[in-house]
Design brief:
393 residues, Aspartate Aminotransferase, domain 1, 7-stranded mixed β-sheet, pyridoxal phosphate binding, pyridoxal phosphate, Aspartate Aminotransferase, domain 2, PyrdxlP-dep_Trfase_major, 14% strand, 4-stranded antiparallel β-sheet, EC 2.6.1.-, 14 helices, globular, Aminotransferase
Length: 393
């Protein structure tokens, strides 16, 4: 182990030093030390990437695609993203040359958008409970986060939006993630149109993280890029839709004047996304339109299985309209301190779930269950949860 020079103690970015590590990873790492634990903590598809996508990557490697690509992504992939968004979600046709950046996952797209489009002290409205990454990235960019607690229905209503804007009239933007991580809740087109009227009136920039758009169960996903394109930067990718989380291909699209800045921020972070991975994403968007359909049907069955088991164990939960999470309320007859609850659950019956409070205000007293796991594992998880309830009553 190398000891740091005493003179260099404290040599770091003070804002970053005050930012906590990913709380989901912290919990997951602790659970990983428990032998025999069944973890439903991380949001990652349990499917393998489709074979035709893997073969496209292999062909690209064999063709010696080992050099720099254009910083904003190869043009065929940017064209495919433009076509895909029009054909799948009825968005405007984004110009591949000026309005699309291919990134290393949606997380990098979020970082680039925040760095490019905000100044220190700008206010960003983030509905909670939400994915913790948004706030940590905002903090490192010195963006002031305005939390909007959406519990208990986990929807931003016009009333809630008007209220937060009255209290924060200088807010510059709002982040909308739907279907939601951690709740699985999503929005109907009518609900979004009500919000759009307010957003247009206040000229708020919208950062729309729609990474789970292909995993909507009860209706077609409605994109903010269709309803309010002139004020929206859309962030998405192929990680969740095509089980390509490890391949790390995301993208950001929006009006050219905004994307010019996002593209510069992206370029300052890395030279380019990897060529073979972009070849895989191109295959996914050109020839893999049916891949998410098959996975979605399985996820829907798993959702219903877990909801049924939770109800039998005494838990209540908003019915997820998409993604692969259930945000369940801990019943009053158990310890409703969600942090204490999940650690006791892990110790007692070796079942790992995420505590709701790590997702921000409104998450206290809840747990997040990822049902991106095999049916066998989910059935075992419900059995363990019921056993825990029996032990605790």
């Amino acid at each position: 182990m190398v000891e740091l020079s005493a003179a260099l103690e404290g040599q770091c970015n003070k804002v970053l030093a005050a930012t906590v590590p990913s709380p989901i990873r912290v919990v997951d790492d602790k659970f990983s030390q428990i032998d025999g634990i069944l973890k439903l903590t991380l949001g990652e598809p349990d499917f393998a990437a489709p074979e035709h996508i893997k073969q496209a990557i292999i062909r690209d490697v064999q063709a010696n695609d080992s050099h720099y690509s254009p910083s904003q992504g190869i043009m065929p992939l940017r064209e495919a993203i433009s076509d895909y968004l029009v054909e799948r979600f009825d968005t405007p046709r984004y110009d591949p040359a000026t309005e699309i950046s291919v990134t290393v996952g949606a997380a990098e797209a979020i970082n680039a958008a925040f760095q490019a489009l905000f100044n220190p002290g700008d206010e960003l409205i983030i509905p909670t409970p939400t994915f913790p990454l948004y706030e940590s990235v905002a903090q490192t960019s010195d963006i002031k986060v305005v939390g909007l607690n959406t519990a208990p229905d986990f929807i931003v209503t016009p009333e809630k939006l008007k209220h937060v804007l009255a209290e924060h009239p200088n807010a510059k933007a709002i982040l909308l993630n739907y279907p939601s991580n951690p709740t699985g809740v999503t929005y109907s087109e009518d609900e979004l149109k009500e919000l759009v009227a307010i957003l247009r009136e206040h000229q708020l920039l919208v950062i729309a993280d729609e990474i789970y758009a292909e995993l909507v169960y009860d209706a077609k996903h409605t994109s903010m890029a269709r309803l309010l394109p002139e004020q929206t930067v859309l962030i998405s990718g192929v990680s969740k839709s095509h089980a390509m989380t490890g391949y790390r291909i995301g993208y950001a699209v929006g009006p050219a004047k905004l994307m010019k800045q996002v593209g510069k921020a992206h370029q300052s972070m890395l030279a380019t996304a990897p060529g073979p991975m972009m070849a895989g994403a191109l295959e996914a968007l050109r020839n893999g339109r049916e891949d998410p359909v098959k996975m979605r049907a399985v996820y829907e069955e798993r959702r219903d299985l877990v909801l049924k088991g939770l109800a039998e164990a005494g838990f209540t939960a908003a019915r997820p309209g998409g993604a692969f999470y259930i945000f369940a309320k801990i019943p009053e007859f158990l310890n409703t301190n969600d942090i204490e609850f999940v650690y006791d659950l892990a110790d007692s019956v070796k079942l790992g779930v995420a505590p709701g409070s790590i997702f921000g205000a409104g998450g206290e007293g809840y747990i997040r269950i990822s049902y991106a796991a095999s049916t066998e594992d989910l059935e075992s998880a419900i059995t363990r949860l019921k056993h825990y309830v029996d032990l605790t009553r």
